[in-house]
Amino acid sequence: MNMIWAMMLIALGMSGNGEQTANIPSLKDAVATTLGSAMIQAQHSSMKVDASNPPVKLDPQPTTPAIKGIYVTAYSAGGSRMNQLLDLIDKTELNAMVIDIKDDAGYITYPTTSPELLKLGKPQKFIRDISGLMDRLKKHKVYPIARIVVFKDTVLANKNPEISFRNPDGSVWKNGKGDGFVNPYNKEVWDYNIAIAKEAAQFGFKEIQFDYVRFPEGFEKRSDKLKYTKSEQSRSNAVAEFVQYARKQLAPMGVRVSVDIFGYAASVPAAEGIGQDFTKISENVDVISPMVYPSHYTTGWFGVQDPDKNPYQTIKGSMVDTHKKLDPTGKLKPIIRPWIQDFTASWLGSGHYAKYGKIQVEDQIRALKDMKVDEYLLWNATNRYTSGVTYK
């Protein structure tokens, strides 16, 4: 206890006898982060995981600046394109990268040697030198975020059909794109993904971003036909409790936990079909990242005919709904850090999409700023970002 009080005094810039200590920002930042992590660990260790009883929020990294980042595939992170992406960070107001550590297929993207991970997962060594990558990120002052795709996992579903969704004949069910999913009710799936997150934190990632934290789209239409183990819990509670459990497990490591979620989830009641309750998930994370790409909204959203051609109005409308949904959560409200669009959605068809460039990207950033949202992430699946954008 005396040690904790001493650390608090240092954090406040005071010595034990009340004299001012030297103002050392790095030390104060480290102490604040350590204290926050210790307090989070203490409050979580004594609490049962319960979606209806979220723990008090304490940011494990209270001194982190506003994050403005880009998505980086593991292939880019481990290849020559990383030079261009680091140059973009160096020359602009961008300061973060979201890097695939477990990708959309379910592959672990670096050469892990963990027996626990190798038992269930399968590495694809896109990032051959993970330590070297972390050194580069640190040199360029990049805030590193590890993206982990959770319940969409074709690798794990094929390897362990019993923890996936199965057709009546026992085969692994896959969606129309050939993707397999694993069961959000299954705690073995939880622990596997959290083990990857823990290894990422050990490498030096400051934040773990969980994606596909949900059941498959349209699951409510086929849930009675598929074979899988479930509990008495609702799907939304099962998903929210995974997030709460993950944050509890990761608390001792001082990393933030963030979750990607459909942008429209802020504008509609809880999506029980896929198990995404915007409020419940948000109450249990440090950062929420709604995917508010204008191209993902259909005619009529936010009063516009073609949302993709009206990025300012679409983003502003989505943030109005996001604040309405999250303001009532009070002290449980997370940092809002949306995913925004830096790609052209030509699949929408002639007359319904805009070619995205500097104007469209800046319109989205301006809408966020007007709605008092200072953080964002840019998505481009090929990691080719628009040049000349002002990211302030």
From TrEMBL:
Domain DUF4015: 69-385
Name the record gives this protein: GTP-binding protein
Native species: Paenibacillus kribbensis
